[in-house]
Amino acid sequence: MEQEVRLVLLGAPGAGKGTQARRLSEGFSIPDIATGDMFRAAVGQRTPMGLAAKRFMDRGELVPDDVTIGIVEERMSQPDAVAGFVLDGFPRTVAQATAFDAMLAKMNRRLNAVIEITAAREVLLARLTQRRTCANCQASYHLISAPPKTPGVCDRCGGTLAQRDDDSEKTVLRRLAVYEVQTAPLLSYYGAAGLLKTIDGARSIDEVYDAIVAAAAMQGGGRAA
Predict the structure, then answer these.
(1) What is the pTM of this model?
(2) Cβ-based neighbours of 70, under 8 Å, separated by 6 or more
(3) What element of type H or E holds 168?
(4) Which domains does the chain have, with CATH numbers?
(5) What Å distances lie between residue 176 and 65, 163, 213, CA to CA?
(6) Residue 51 in 3-state DSSP?
(7) DSSP string spanning 119-158?
(8) Which residues, given as ranges, of the chain have pLDDT below 70?
(9) What are the backbone angles phi and psi of residue 182, rounded to the nearest 5°?
(10) Which residues belong to the active site?
(11) Alpha carbons 91 and 31: distance in angstroms, whole number
């Protein structure tokens, strides 16, 4: 695909952001940039902002917005992100979104769209609470959509499969509640900017992907002037 694509994906845990980010990365030949990966890379490469973030992380503190934005800017300046990107997990607050807009303007870039992938709470619960992870190799399974060949046993290494603590129903419900509170202002912000498009994440992976591509095109696409 030749169109330049710059997207932000929003969605509750289990909505399918990661899956769609990977597909968009492959389909448009653009980097899939997840917040956690970006932080780890910056720290590992010992970039100026990575070192700044590490000082806060080592103390168990939240990384301030100015440092987070600095890490995003470092990542956006890398050659593979010039033709486009898909962001998963950033921005998380209106303050970050405002700073991100200013950063893009400075780079003479603009977003095609901000995609919110939604699904009913019962769908999200089913997706998250049925996940199992190998204690040995960390391979991931889903008891409904991608079960192991032998119950409780990893196909890859024969290790024991278990439910992660953050995939228990109690924890999932808490994660969903936190997401709803934190994200509501962000949805209003991007809605007011005319960038927000909501996609039904309960459909098939292919259908969700096609809907995201269509939504991005409806925002004009193309290159920044």
Answers:
(1) 0.81
(2) 48, 49, 52
(3) none
(4) 5-31+78-218 (3.40.50.300)
(5) 23, 18, 26
(6) helix
(7) --HHHHHHHHHTEEEETTT--EEETTTB--SBTTB-TTT-
(8) 1-3, 218-225
(9) -70, -35
(10) 17, 92, 131, 164, 175
(11) 16
